[in-house]
From TrEMBL:
This is FMN-binding negative transcriptional regulator. It comes from Anabaena sphaerica FACHB-251. It holds the Pfam family FMN_bind_2. Signal peptide: none annotated. PANTHER family: PROTEASE SYNTHASE AND SPORULATION PROTEIN PAI 2 (PTHR35802).
Length: 213
């Protein structure tokens, strides 16, 4: 991902929090020299300072066959908004788009019920706990036959993240006046996505002010 210095975010805690808040990821890998992608929810954990992602694909989704053969990329998308040059103090400016995104690179290990039942159970438990904790008792009450049938229809994976890239493109390359004006304009929007970028810009400005004291 192209990340100019002004937009780079390296704080791992901040990136992990963002990934958890936007955990419906795009998982990309290479099969037969062709990029392939799946859109799936993942669970983000941190163990001894190492970030790990876990999730699963349908067994019929052949992308899982690429796991372990090369690097995997998980893309986490956040809010985004069009920025009109009319909001800038300098009239000779160009339009752009503000957004937040995190790229996680790493190696993925395939997990199947047949080869690693304990790891498969752990992945399912973490997924339920993260996305639907109230469903846990119902899942546990299902028959072994039904649960095993469900788990035999998927391929789980655990990805150990080796590199994180965070891009918070929030007009940091503009003047404080421009940033403040853009943020206020976005906050007045009726679109939640646009408001979220405005809120992120406002928070970033407030952080900059505090850090300069």
């Amino acid at each position: 991902m192209y990340v100019p210095p002004a937009f780079r975010e390296d704080d791992m805690e901040k990136l992990v929090a963002f990934m958890r808040d936007n955990s419906f990821a795009t998982v990309v890998s290479i099969m037969n020299d062709i990029p392939v992608a799946s859109h799936i929810p993942v669970v983000v954990t941190v163990e001894n300072g190492v970030v790990k992602l876990s999730g699963h694909l349908a067994k019929a989704n052949s992308q899982w066959q690429s796991f372990g053969l090369g690097e995997t990329l998980a893309i986490f998308h956040g809010p985004h908004a069009y920025i009109s040059p009319s909001l800038y103090e300098k009239k000779e400016s160009v339009p752009t788009w503000n957004y937040i995104a995190v790229h996680a690179y790493g190696l993925s290990q395939v997990i199947t019920l047949e080869d690693a039942p304990e790891l498969m159970d752990q992945m399912i438990d973490e997924m339920i706990e993260t996305y639907d904790s109230d469903y846990k008792s119902q899942w546990e009450d299902l028959s072994d036959h039904f649960r095993e049938g469900m788990m035999n229809g998927i391929i789980a994976f655990e990805m150990t993240v080796t590199k994180l890239e965070g891009k918070y493109k929030l007009s940091q390359n503009r003047s404080h006046y421009d940033q403040s004006n853009v943020a206020q304009s976005l906050l007045q929007s009726t679109e939640t996505n646009v408001q979220s970028i405005g809120a992120a810009m406002k928070q970033n400005l407030e952080t900059d002010v505090e850090s300069s004291k």
